[in-house]
Each structure stands twice: as structure tokens, then as C-alpha cells.
Amino acid sequence: MSIKRRSLRRTAKIALAAALGLGLVACGGGGGGGQSEGAEGGGNNVVYYTTRPEDGLPELKTAFETANPGYTLEIIRGSSSDMVARLITEASAKQQKADVVEINSLPMSQLAEAGILAPLPSSITDALPDRTKAPDGTYAGTRYFGHYTPYNTNLVPEPEWPKSYMDFLKPYWRGQFIIGANDVEWAYQVYASMGPEKGLELFQQLAAQEPQIRDEGRGALAELIAVGQAKAAIMTLSYHVERREAKGLPIAGAPWDPPLLNIDWLATFNGAPNPDATNVFLTWFFSENGIATDAEIGFNRIGDDGTADALADPNLLILSPDTAELQSKAAEDFESVFGVQ
């Protein structure tokens, strides 16, 4: 099993790796891709680095280009660690390729720490809730996700259906649940809600329950549970459960208390090579049309009709770049306790 260490201390190491030549994948309008040594950015071309799943990227590209004739969107997709490494290396060498990046909270904190982000237009940030944007306006929230502890309602007797992940401490669940090798969002929720000392104790107690440590993605784990190949897991994203429930599959999810909102973040750069085209993209992306495009793909977006409800809980925790230090601590302890190297 392996997990990417999400510590800010990795920035120098991954930047060195990028200098040695990391490849990202270019996603075309037809959904195909190949290895890209660097984006070719013309004046009306927007180069967009993202960690989004490939499904939906062609639709995003088509929607932008249809709404903005004469402009093109070049999508470069890769892992968080590769993307941060490449962006920092390009900026240091004054060979910036990307105009825009959309990535999750810890990698965005590394980019902010590197000092390469530019303020977003105030016309965009002024319209966003305070908790979904950087205090200095350099990044803004985009897609958002809730979390569940998923379980199979046929395999698990109803009296044992978990009401929270704390129920996995019960004797019934010994050896019967999965912890994903990348479940660091859950680790953060534990540390943020109960503190690192008690959180570490909980990690150790759950490790003594002999969970299966698996490295499938969240959707794959939800599918294993929905089709009866596993009983339960510590976490998945809420939409993975809801979409399968809607299909009539025997899966349900216990909510987290307090809830955690996982947000992706978007930023642009001081050295963005196509600033005019970038502003066109940003304006569209945060417009009703851009948000509606993501809704058609199947994503919730900050600014949609559900945003107010998603942010309403007074105890809500948010995965944001400004909580990077605690996220990193939780991730490191998670790796240590659950034997993920």
C-alpha cells in the first residue's frame, strides 16, 4: 500500500522531482489523452491544470468553447503531487505553462506558500461566502463534497448498521471494514473534531480492530460495498453513495458529526501566459453557465442552489488550504498508525 505524504515539507522534494521530468496528461475534447511535455498556449488559449477525474472534462471544454467563440481550453490532468511539483518548477524557471489550476486543499496551500498565485478578480471573490475563498483572494472554492461512512444494507444485519464510524469499535466489526490508504480527509475530520491527542488514540483503537487497508479510489470502494464484495468502509464521498442508492443498490451511508465539506480550489498565477483569455475563462467558470455545466456533469459547485445548505451547520468543518498544518499532522499520524508507507 502507498499513500502520498501530504506534508508541506514535501514541496522541495517534489519540485526537484519535477525538474527531473514529470509528465501530466493532456485531455482533448474527445476525451482522449497523451503525455504532454508542456502546454502550448496561444493568446486565446487557456491552459487549465486539474486533478478532476477525466469523465466530464470533455464536456467542460466544449461548454466553455461554445460559450466563448474563438477561445480554446487546453486541459492538463495529473496527480496532486505531480501538479504542484511542475507548477512550482515552471514558476521558478520563469517558464509558466499553466493559466489556471484546480486542485484540493493541501496542494493549494503549497502553491500559496510558494508565492506564485495571483489574486482572482474581485467580481468573482466578492460573490463567494467567506469560508469558500482565500482571505487575500488568491484561490476560490469550486466543487464541493460531503462524506459518508458507507455500508451494505444486505450484508450487515440491521442492528449493526453503523450510525457513525465510531461504531467500528464494536466487536462485530473486527476485521470487517475497510480503511482506504488515502483516507486523510477522515483523519483531518477526526483531529479537527476531537483534537490530535484523542484523535491519535482513536486511530490506534481502530487499528486494533484489524481493518482492511485498501488503496482503491473512493468510487471503487463504494462500488465494492454496493455490489456486496465488502461490508463497509470508514469513508467515501457522499455522491458515490447517493448515486448508487438511486440505482437501487443496497448501500447506505452514516453521516459524519461534525460534517466535513471537501472543497476543490481554483487559482491563477502571477506569471499566467494568457492573462486576457484567463479572465474570460474565470468569468465563465464562476458564472451561472459554468456552475450549470458542472451540475450537468454531476458535481455540486460553490455558488449553486445547495451551497447555503452545505455551509449551514454551525459545526461544519471545511477542508481548506488554511487548515493545512493540522491536515498534514493528521495525515502523517494516519500513515504511521495504519502502516501506510
From TrEMBL:
Residues 1-28 form the signal peptide. The keyword Signal applies. The keyword Signal applies. Gene3D superfamilies: Periplasmic binding protein-like II (3.40.190.10). It comes from Mycolicibacterium iranicum (Mycobacterium iranicum). Keywords: Signal. This is ABC transporter substrate-binding protein. InterPro entries: SBP. It holds the Pfam family SBP_bac_8.
